[in-house]
Amino acid sequence: MVSGWKRLSVGVIGGGIGGMSVAIALKRAGHDVVIYERSNFAGEVGASVSCAANGTRWLHEWKVDVAQGDPVVLKRLIQRDWKTGQPMSEYSLNDYEERWGHVYNMFHRQDMHAMLKNCALGEAGDGTPARLMVNHKCKDIDLQSNTITFENGATLYHDLIVGADGIGSVVRGALGIHPTRKIADQQCLHCNVMRDDAIKAGLVDYSQHEALEYWGGQEGKWDKIVLSPCNGGKLLSYYCFFARKQGDAINQTWGAEERSVEELLEHYPELDRQVFGHLGIGKEIQPWRLWIHEPYAYLNKQRACLLGDAGHPMMPHQSQGACMAIEDAAALGILFSAAYFDGNVEQALSIYNKVRLPRVTRVQSAAARAAYNINERIGFSNNKDLPFYKVEDTNNVLTIEEMNAYDMYRDIEEKLAAVKEVQYGDSYVCGLPVGMKLLNGIVVGASA
Ligand SMILES: Cc1cc2nc3c(=O)[nH]c(=O)nc-3n(C[C@H](O)[C@H](O)[C@H](O)COP(=O)(O)OP(=O)(O)OC[C@H]3O[C@@H](n4cnc5c(N)ncnc54)[C@H](O)[C@@H]3O)c2cc1C
């Protein structure tokens, strides 16, 4: 416990997965949270969001009712041959919970969002329920007065401002960050298939596999199909990637006019006929325009910070976007808790930056590499004995160990000790135990 803790009024801009998560974390830490969301959440189109153990652990710590999210608990990752659909490699998650303490959940976005929203705004558990103000689109923030100006004319003060306003963040600009970004060479169409429709059509019932399944993504090719079952297995969510030169999805807005099945199928003349059959009965086909952002130099300025996609947008190929937003929220929850927060908002945010920036940047670059090489994907990156295993740099590959063995409390302790110029006594480096051997051969704490 430190002295000086005080209850803050926190303004969270953006009520997505990251915004709801940070509202939960900060209300649990005793603060008064208001979430400002530009939309009213109507008209969202569903897709899956995966939440690996490094995200799930915080849901448990915050006492979120995970069952409300109706997840599928994943048992394996399967890589299939593009043309025949035969399994080429598998990463088993059978011992996943035993090893990492938490399961790998696959949620439907709306269910996950509703689960987090209920927890943030609800009475259950520690803390005062957060308040949600919809139809509040942030126009600008003033860092001197720490006020937020909205398009509806309101101007409101908060002690701490969290920009969780997604990839097109307005808060980011107010913090002086102007992204260097480029359109990815890969594009995506997403579609949903109802399990019952697939069974009626005589197609294989992929939901039985309880797996994230991949077709393609090897040998530097952009073509890849990613299947994730959600909604307790009733819904099969397909992310269908292809080279941008085959068609550019200019409209990235979810809930826009649906695309035709023909447009989706034309990219995949040689695809395994089973999964091709699934795509042929796909619904709610939506384009997703992918961007590659260079990492930003910082995540905080004065009494404001960025969280989630606002601070580190990433390609979807490590399925870690939501988890990284949840981890950001967890870091703020710890730093502003009675155990750590001494009343100095700026200092707490500077530690947040030191803890989060290296980790999110590492995941961000690994996600970009996995776009064209599935061997770089966490899980498959451990299958190094396979004959077709090839990664850019074995020493730099992102492993499941560093994602799931990461101890954020210890990482924060280490960074705090450095700022206070005191000795850090634990045998951890950046939240990983000294001596832990990563599958890429690196031993944590060993000199290079
Ligand atoms: C189709 C799709 C599939 C994905 N699949 C996965 C996956 O499988 N696994 C995974 O880990 N990640 C996945 N991601 C990424 C993941 O959803 C995001 O990384 C994660 O949701 C980050 O959440 P966020 O809150 O930062 O941003 P968002 O979820 O984008 O939320 C931002 C919120 O801010 C609001 N907003 C924006 N501007 C303003 C403003 N000016 N004022 C007020 N409010 C504003 C928006 O309306 C929105 O509600 C996927 C993303 C997409 C789009």
Automatic annotation (TrEMBL):
Keyword tags: FAD, Flavoprotein, Monooxygenase, Oxidoreductase
GO MF, any single term: FAD binding
Domain FAD-binding intervals: 154-364
Flavoprotein found in the keyword field: yes
UniProt KW Flavoprotein keyword: yes
Gene3D superfamilies: FAD/NAD(P)-binding domain (3.50.50.60)
Taxonomic superkingdom: Eukaryota
Domain FAD dependent oxidoreductase positions: 10-122
Family designation: Belongs to the paxM FAD-dependent monooxygenase family.
Protein name per UniProt: FAD-dependent urate hydroxylase-like protein
